[in-house]
């Protein structure tokens, strides 16, 4: 019966995502972590996320550089070199065939031997996966802008406890903030520190236009690659940028607010604590930076093509 | 050849530990967590650990009660009832055959569907495992006491960021503290809060005898079951107990310090920041509480037998 010369197109098992675990590429649905990995049972790890847009990686080497700096700060020695990890990241995307992807790399402290409790003795483990691009604010909502809430009962974990420049999964404060936002009919929380200064939200940095200056917090935040890109773009556009302490009160007199993340880009904010920011539509500065951000994704100085063959 | 009436003793595949994952009991070495579980990639979970000593569970129902309270505080609905989870915990121990075990139960927020970002929509996941009993301070070192260091560059994550009474894996501060301790030739860190008050260390509560009163911190700590047991024992023994704020300076004038944890019990401290505590040997109060703690493990009011058949 089935004896045609026509080749049969098999579905790609990696179409929903591709992971690299213990030296093997596996479909994302089958990718897993040993339950005793201290990345899970101690959240002892660091990670990074790069994106692929229209078949091109965006600033991959900048992500890798930050990732390796983070490993060093945690005294975590990745089991492979930067070049090897880079190849694996590209390969997960290539195998998945995804033209728009969210590509995560994780190094954990690893699995203790029986009775071991000294993290210096564990063998660090590497995990990589590519899944379809993730939007913190979906594109249809970005046209209007999202609804943001400044948490009142939750402070960002301070730097003297956990270094926010080392990307980590200590999201307890963020998750608590998300529930606080939901309870106020908002979608996205921004967390202040204990001194009432703006920090960041779950997976993003914050920018605010106040008195024609574009502010973003200097301390207590991840030094985001999208944040860096937005600052570069703003300076190129002749916008005055101030990276400094940003009191929460300043947010309330902003004419524009936007959020930046690899997972969603430059995302306009429509309302803050239920009240419109500016006229409630994405402002001119936000729009210009956002447009330019996406243009850079095809610029060879910022991005490179994935070989899908 | 092999045709004897003698039954062949097969090795127990669960001897190194037994886990319950997705409704199945599996050897610990094969137990794993989906890589996209937000318990791993957000540390969005709570957990508890009970112990088995000489074939008896210790205060299992107290652990379960605390665990369910923690789930509620995180708005995390366990996928099974308390009675069902209890049975699974007992069964992992029974299958492992372990007479001394460390039994962990975890509920995570679960795996988001494709593109999902709202944690209210995920299906929480349950994990249970029993492994050989874990010692934060090994018994041979307990005879002498361990070496403790009060961290100078690391504060415990404050309650306004992450609730310490909900047992969590936000161990970034603890791990940083452990490396700080290693750098000072100590084994175990104690973390102060931002106001110079004693909190806790990686997996344990802290007690100190100062002016004949037994102090333990009231705030910014897990309400440990071993802590509760030690307080009950001390009161029974007629020792004055104060659960309150404990300034770090008070540790330096303690005549005895001990640590409490399900993973190791009541653990004497020999040195603090390199100097002997008291005369440098486990003190009389520590020893009395420690002895009574282990006696209670055979008391039917505190423990119950595991059926290994």
Q: Can you tell me about this structure?
A:
- The structure is a homodimer of 309-residue chains.
- In chain A, a hairpin with a 2-residue loop joins strand 10 and strand 11 (213-217).
- The model of chain A has no long low-confidence stretch (mean pLDDT 96).
- Chain A has 309 residues and is an alpha+beta fold.
- Chain A is 25% helix and 27% strand.
- The first copy, chain A, folds into two domains: 18-132, Aminotransferase class 4, branched-chain amino acid transferase, N-terminal domain (D-amino Acid Aminotransferase, Chain A, domain 1); 139-297, D-amino Acid Aminotransferase, subunit A, domain 2 (D-amino Acid Aminotransferase, Chain A, domain 2).
- In chain A, the strands form two sheets. In chain A, strands 8, 9, 10, 11, 12, 13, 14 and 15 form an eight-stranded mixed β-sheet that branches. Chain A has a seven-stranded antiparallel β-sheet with strand order 2-1-7-6-4-5-16.
- In chain A, helix 6 (225-236) packs across helix 8 (284-295).
- The longest helix of chain A is centred in the first third of the chain and has 15 residues, at 82-96.
- The two termini of chain A are 31 Å apart.
- The interface between A and B is large, with 58 and 58 residues.
List keywords for this structure.
D-amino Acid Aminotransferase, Chain A, domain 1; Aminotransferase-like (chains A, B); 309 residues; seven-stranded antiparallel β-sheet; homodimer; Aminotrans_IV (chains A, B); 8 helices; 2 domains; D-amino Acid Aminotransferase, Chain A, domain 2; alpha+beta; BCAT-like_N (chains A, B); 25% helix
């Amino acid at each position: 019966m089935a004896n045609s010369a026509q080749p049969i197109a098999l579905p790609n098992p990696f179409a929903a995502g591709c992971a690299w675990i213990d030296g093997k590429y596996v479909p994302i649905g089958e990718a897993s972590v040993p339950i005793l990995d201290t990345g899970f049972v101690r959240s002892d790890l660091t990670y990074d996320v790069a994106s692929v847009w229209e078949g091109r990686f965006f600033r991959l080497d900048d992500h890798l550089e930050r990732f390796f700096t983070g490993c060093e700060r945690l005294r975590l020695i990745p089991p492979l070199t930067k070049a090897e990890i880079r190849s694996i990241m590209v390969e997960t995307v290539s195998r998945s065939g995804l033209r728009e992807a969210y590509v995560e790399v994780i190094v954990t402290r690893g699995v203790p031997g029986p009775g071991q409790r000294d993290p210096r003795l564990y063998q660090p483990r590497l995990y990589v996966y590519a899944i379809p691009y993730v939007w913190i604010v979906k594109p249809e909502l970005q046209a209007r802008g999202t609804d943001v809430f400044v948490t009142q009962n939750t402070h960002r974990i301070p730097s003297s406890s956990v270094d926010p420049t080392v990307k980590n999964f200590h999201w307890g404060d963020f998750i608590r903030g998300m529930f606080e936002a939901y309870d106020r009919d908002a979608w996205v929380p921004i967390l202040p520190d204990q001194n009432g200064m703006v920090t960041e939200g779950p997976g993003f940095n914050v920018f605010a236009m106040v008195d024609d200056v574009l502010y973003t917090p200097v301390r207590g935040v991840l030094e985001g690659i999208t944040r860096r890109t937005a600052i570069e773009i703003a300076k190129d556009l002749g916008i005055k940028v101030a990276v400094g302490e940003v009191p929460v009160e300043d947010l309330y007199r902003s004419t524009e607010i936007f959020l930046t993340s690899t997972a969603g880009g430059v995302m306009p904010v429509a309302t803050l604590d239920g009240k419109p920011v500016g006229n409630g539509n994405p402002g001119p500065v936000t729009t210009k930076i956002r447009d330019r951000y996406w243009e850079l994704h095809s610029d060879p100085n910022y991005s490179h093509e994935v070989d899908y063959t």
